[in-house]
Design brief:
The chain is α/β, with parallel strands linked by helices. Helices cover 43% and strands 15% of the residues. Bound molecules: acetoacetyl-coenzyme A. The site of acetoacetyl-coenzyme A has 22 residues, from helix 5, strand 7 and helix 7.
Length: 293
């Protein structure tokens, strides 16, 4: 239903794009369409929000190489689009993503994976400067759980399931499951999930433990994520992007260094027109109109 309400733009596989070319409304969207020939994802814009939908339903959005290349390209395009202030990443109601594509990787050898730095390009999503909200319905398993954790905020549908079942395949998580999950749910539960391949988290458990910040009915999930993304996109982009960078930095650096970075960025923002606008608007009892300057 929400999809029908989208009034701005949708990119589809190129074959389908020809017939719907009239729906593209902005130069940025045209650029996105021209640059893409997506087979496994859909992209849309909704106001200042970019929406990326994993669209490989027969394989429960298993994250094959080509799908991830497309996700990276779509994220980069939205990151470079001055009209976009935040991004939502979602899947289907049945599966956000059921993990890396097992059938595609099952015959890989150590030398292949090492020489080609298998999964190395999955880390590109962490280079996106704009905030990304993962809207997770259904299965977020293995690489699917790791992809959600690579985003900045996770909202979950009521039937979402988070797990790291890689151990059942004779491997371990390879895209952050042994690292980000610990910080999100604590050592004991992370160990249980990673080492047993079970102990999956329901949406409610994930929220209680702090992995997820909001749980909503499945059919409202994307709307809810877009609402929050729209709110973020209405703020001054320099402060939003610095805020994101600094929260992520807290995972990487000692507290004293993080606090120093924070103060330096805080001070730097006094050089922006948006700081003058934001504080001026408060003093004048009106809403700010940020211009990203
Ligand atoms: N890779 C490739 N194909 C997958 C897949 C995956 N990760 N997950 C599901 N599929 C495919 C199935 O093979 C099946 O295809 P066919 O119809 O051609 O047989 C189709 O999706 C539907 O799946 P099921 O019939 O299994 O659906 P289900 O509802 O009975 O079960 C499920 C759903 C519990 C998610 C089950 O599909 C499953 O266990 N999937 C694998 C989950 C997993 O192990 N993920 C970790 C992958 S490894 C990884 O991600 C490494 C990393 O850290 C990056």
């Amino acid at each position: 239903m929400f999809r029908n309400l989208i009034s701005t733009s949708i990119t589809k596989p190129l074959s389908a794009q020809k017939s719907s070319a009239r729906t593209f409304t902005s130069a940025a969207v045209l650029r996105q369409a021209a640059a893409s020939n997506y087979q496994h994802i859909l992209t849309e814009t909704r106001g200042k929000v970019g929406l990326v939908t994993l669209n490989r339903p027969k394989a429960l959005n298993a994250l094959c190489n080509d799908l991830f290349v497309e996700v990276n390209e779509a994220m980069k395009n939205f990151d470079e689009d001055a009209n976009i202030g935040a991004i939502v990443l979602t899947g289907s109601e049945k599966a956000f993503a059921a993990g890396a594509d097992i059938k595609e990787m099952k015959d890989n050898t150590f030398v292949d994976t090492y020489k080609k730095d298998f999964l190395g390009h999955w880390a590109k999503i962490s280079e996106v400067k704009k905030p990304i909200i993962a809207a997770v319905n259904g299965y977020a398993l293995g690489g699917g759980c790791e992809l959600a954790m690579s985003c900045d905020i996770i909202y979950a549908g009521e039937k979402a399931v988070f797990g790291q079942p890689e151990i059942n395949l004779g491997i371990i998580p390879g895209a952050g499951g042994t690292q980000r999950l610990v910080k999100a749910v604590g050592k004991s539960r992370a160990m249980e999930m990673v080492l047993s391949g079970g102990a999956n988290l329901t949406a409610t458990e994930a929220q209680t433990l702090g992995l997820v910040s909001k749980v909503v009915p499945a059919d409202q999930l994307v709307d809810e994520a877009i609402k929050t993304a729209g709110k973020i996109a209405s703020k001054s982009q320099a402060s939003v992007q610095m805020g994101k960078e600094l929260v992520n930095k807290s995972y990487e650096v000692p507290l004293s260094a993080g606090l120093r970075w924070e103060r330096a960025y805080f001070q730097a923002l006094f050089g922006t027109a948006d700081q003058k606008e934001g504080m001026g608007a408060f003093a004048e009892k009106r809403n700010p109109n940020f211009t990203n300057n």
